[in-house]
Amino acid sequence: MSKYLINIAVGPVQEFIASARKLKDLWYGSHLLSELSKSVAAVLYDQGCELIFPAVDDKALLQPNSQLNVANKIFAVSPEGSDPASLTAQARDAFIGHWEKICREAALKAPSLNQELFNKQIDDFGEFFAAWVPYEEKEYKKCRSLVEAKLGGRKSLRAFKAPAWDGTGLAKSSLDGIREAVLTGVKAKDKRSFQLKKGEHLDVLGVVKRFGPWNNADRPHFDNMAQVAARPYLAGLQKAAIKDKNIAELIPNMEMVKNLYPDFPEGSPLADPPLWEGWPKGLSSDLLHPAVLEEEKKLIESDRQKAWAALEKTLKKLWTATSQPSPYACLLLGDGDNMGKTLDAISTADGHRAFSASLESFAAGVQDIAKSYDGRIVYSGGDDVMAYAPLDSALNCAEAFNNLFLKIMEKVGNALKIAPPTFSLGMVIVHQRTPLADALALARQAEHTAKNIGGKNCLAVIQDKRSGSPLSIHGPWQGISGLPVRLKRYQEAIIAERLPSTLGYQLRRIADQCGPTLAWQNTTEPANPACAEALRIIGRKRDRSTKQLCSDDAAFIIQGEKDLRHISDELVIALQLARAKKLADAHWSKKEMN
């Protein structure tokens, strides 16, 4: 026996991914983890190992910045007669070497920093754990179980050591406060300052996240949440500008942009990629939010105040003629259900390789889906996906993720003769000024609700406006009672004015006064005060054009339902989605400003 089953985990995952103040920080943290995992997998591949996770046969896929996303876990079978200690030592050297290379390249793009502390933090950061067991192909399942247990034990016995520097009196990183900052502000007139907020401090990981992407000419653009929130309004503005030249003439022009950013000929380096020919290149769409414009005006130097005043004057005319953008955008976070049980049900290495390849297919496929709904993938690896999307298209984007997962899993499940896993996703609707850490926590809470309260194979939505308590709803993906169907039906009825925008709040008041439980006799007759009062309120509603209640809508809302508070929350969230859709269709209303 001379083959070994090798199991390697790199990290720390939480710090790589979660420490972020911008969507770009979040993306680059997960990208960085994937790049480090690829460097480990590439060494094993070069040494003749058979890779299982990731299931890669082409070395090109393991090159830096390839399209492949690799999770933080690498699983492989070593070649005959190999030394697992030597293989994992080489993999560890590759991990450390690639991490140091990325850090050094990021520092070249950053303003002057504390080099001595930067070097010490490079050496201090990063986790690499490995375990291996002798491998018998016929005993694959047993070997896998044993090596998983050994790696789990090794990770539990991690060694802790004191930092190699004295942090007394030094500022902590603004991203997570874990380490002392190596970069604490920039000199005046330093063009690289646009990457830092006023008073922001960065440690080694923060420097890498913020400046590392600028070493990749093909780096993707990542919006901030204010830009994402402005998308429905911009879509409507484009339609309105095509139809009405008076609207088109109110959109800021290129000459105005040059005056705003005299040091940058192409306009703001953080602006959206070109949107459409009527929108000036280099003008960031987040300035369409009055609150963002006000904040930016406070940061400009005195010699540019006239240019910014001209922009504000133009935008005020535009808002008067149209509307203002909604300040809300969506984060989506989802993964497969019962993935551990599914992996345990596969008894061969070939089966795991086929399953791994299908997960890579899913991770690649969601990229195109997110783009088609004007969003972007922040992270996709294995069965995990995190994305952002505008409010008007987020629900369709979430459904498309689920449909792709089910399609791919059904195919591989049939091939391996296992029950295909299902998919659960949490979607959170947040204000553009909500701190990213809070938005992420809510997205995780929504995902938790989908799995643990919704019972998996479920969508959960949390809406967190800046006043009042968050609203949380959940429901299955499919069927007439599925949450996507219900929300779309409400959305359609609200846009068509078959349902008033106040109905959700009126039903909530009944739930508060009479209790949230709905009771029925013979499935249609009310059997408690809450049910009777809710039916009375819904029966008063009339379509504005026909003056008739749409009985199908009324029955759809309440008949057979048991939780009035859940219905009212669904209607309130559907109202928010309907407002975004109306903005995207240039159906202007001053109500959409709220």
From TrEMBL:
Segments forming domain GGDEF: 327-464
Q: Keyword annotations for this protein?
A: Antiviral defense, Nucleotide-binding
Q: This protein is called what?
A: Type III-B CRISPR-associated protein Cas10/Cmr2
One GO term (biological process): defense response to virus
Q: Which NCBIfam families match?
A: cas_TM1794_Cmr2
Q: Which Pfam families match?
A: Cas10-Cmr2_palm2 (PF22335), Cmr2_N (PF12469)
Which species is this record about? Answer: Desulfobacter hydrogenophilus
InterPro entries, alphabetized? Cas10-Cmr2_palm2, Cmr2_N, CRISPR-assoc_Cmr2_N, CRISPR-assoc_prot_Cmr2, GGDEF_dom, Rev_trsase/Diguanyl_cyclase
Task: Tell me what gene encodes this.
Answer: cas10
Care to name a GO molecular-function term for this sequence?
A: nucleotide binding
